[in-house]
Amino acid sequence: MLECADGTLYTGYTTDVERRLDEHDSGVGAKYTRGRTPVDLIHSESYDTKSAAMAREYEIKQLTRAEKEQLTER
C-alpha cells in the first residue's frame, strides 16, 4: 500500500516492490499515482501465488481508510 503525496492511499500488487515503487515515483506507474508523487510504501505483504495476491488486493480495496490505516500499524 502506498501513501501518495496528497495523502490518499493506493493499493496494488507486484512481483518486485522496489521496481514498482520506482515506476510510481517516475510517473510511469498506475494512472492513479501520476501527479500524486512522491509516494511512500507504508504496507506490504507477500504471497506465494498471483491469485492469492490478487485476492488480498481485492480484500484491502474493500476496506475503509481507517481499516487500511490499522494495517499499517501492525
From TrEMBL:
The entry's keywords: Endonuclease, Hydrolase, Nuclease
SUPFAM superfamilies: GIY-YIG endonuclease
Pfam families: GIY-YIG
GO molecular function ontology, one term from the record: endonuclease activity
Start and end residues of each GIY-YIG domain: 1-70
PROSITE patterns: GIY_YIG (PS50164)
Entry protein name: Putative endonuclease containing a URI domain
